[in-house]
Amino acid sequence: MTEWLATLTSWLAAHSSWLGLALLLASFAECLAVIGLLVPGTLILFALAMLAGGGVLGLGETLAVGFVGGLMGDLFSYALGRRYHQNIRRLRGIRSHPEWLLRAELYMQRYGMVSLLVGRFIGPLRPMLPLTAGMLDMPFPRFLLVSLLATAGWALAYLLPGWAAGAALRLPLPEGFWRELGYITASLALLLALSFYASLRGVRHTSALVAMLTGLWLSAIFIGWPRLGAIDQGLMQLIQTERQPSLDLAMVFITRLGDFDAQLYAGVALVLLVLLLRHWRAGLFAGLTLLGTALANDHLKHGIARARPEVLLEPLSTYSLPSGHASAAFALFLTLSVLAGRGEPVRMRVTWLALACLPAGAIALSRVYLGVHWPTDVLAGALLAAAVCAASLAAVQWRRPLAPLPAWHWALLLPVCLGLLLAYAWWELATASALYRYR
């Protein structure tokens, strides 16, 4: 397989005009029913995205091609399910492996529409869920809406790392960049591995342990950020070279989702709704996480007093480390994911946490793209939110675990919180555009 992939990438490197089509087909195959289970799509997509980042395709083009290919795979799989219904079980491949479809059926029956969003990031389920949705006659408008959101997050998670690696290799980055990147990547991988191992083994007071470990990593960032100039400058340079008008508006909209007012409205709504639904301890956990993160961020930012990047034409008066947008976004989405994972197996809880990092990570990335924060600022914001979230969960669960929220409660919580964020960002963007035209 590695020889075949090496041959393919070598040919595409010499015939770069075919790279876009290859990326489209690979994304399509990775999300296509049955086929997505047989091809090593993750490895192929990383290799193709890395070639694209080498100067063949811009970041926006790479993500757009991957998004279209993934969406085509979803729609084709859904159409197959609607066309054949229960007869889909007789098709070659599925007939030989009925567990593929059975697993997707059970998952969709348990989680409903949310399964399409979460299952997108679970390898064995990703290509089978759209097929199952069509087989079970999920209304097409509902399927399309969820598929659009899930595919956007999938394209970002699966293509951005490869593209960034390819772009980093072709740019003249500061000396020490790769060494510092290696240190940070290895340390974060170790943190995640220890946290996952403790959860998987059922270590007593796992949340308190994760809070302590995350706090140690966060302290290392606060102490060592003056020595991480190469990675900050290198990543900032890498991202700024990709700035283009077509992406600017989208990034401004995304960054508005992390504004203080947007996060305040969504956070207050979440806490009040959880309390009104009589989940007292869940409401306490949410309040402690959101309020604790906000207070800690404010005190740390003024205590460290790090200057912002010089990219902004009109520098903001506040300091940079840690990023308030990143910490607030991660606090909100981690809170939602922790509550969603109550009562689930460890692997499912980890999947919810990984899913929460996608919108929060997009908000954090938008801050670096717009030149408002250094990369280590948003990393510190994410670690701060994770540490406070884990500590709050440990405090609330010290005697007994949180009870899971009923599924129908999520039909109220998620639309309200996400709707408030989107409405605020749209209103701010529309108001700014109106003022610009008026002037």
Provide an overview of this structure.
Helix 17 (346-369) packs antiparallel against helix 18. The longest helix has 32 residues, at 407-438. This protein folds into two domains: 14-151, no CATH class; 174-438, Vanadium-containing Chloroperoxidase, domain 1 (Up-down Bundle). With 439 residues, it is mainly alpha-helical. It is built from 19 helices and no strands. Mean pLDDT is 82; it is low at 434-439.
Fold topology:
Layout lengths: L1 H13 L4 H12 L4 H4 L2 H16 L2 H26 L13 H14 L2 H5 L10 H7 L4 H31 L6 H24 L5 H19 L4 H12 L4 H12 L3 H17 L3 H25 L19 H17 L5 H24 L5 H22 L10 H32 L1
Salient structural properties:
2 domains, disordered C terminus, mainly alpha, 439 residues, Vanadium-containing Chloroperoxidase, domain 1
| Radius of gyration from CA coordinates | 22 Å
The main pleated sheet reads as: none
Structural class: mainly alpha
Molecular shape: globular
- In CATH, what is the class of the largest domain? Mainly Alpha
CATH topology of the largest domain: Vanadium-containing Chloroperoxidase, domain 1
**How many structural units, i.e. domains?**
2
CATH architecture of the largest domain: Up-down Bundle
* % residues in beta strands: under 5%
User: What gap, in angstroms, lies between the N and C termini?
Assistant: 59 Å
Helix content: over 70%
The chain-level mean pLDDT equals 82
Short description:
This protein has helices at 2-14, 19-30, 35-38, 41-56, 59-84, 98-111, 114-118, 129-135, 140-170, 177-200, 206-224, 229-240, 245-256, 260-276, 280-304, 324-340, 346-369, 375-396, 407-438. With 439 residues, the protein is an all-alpha fold.
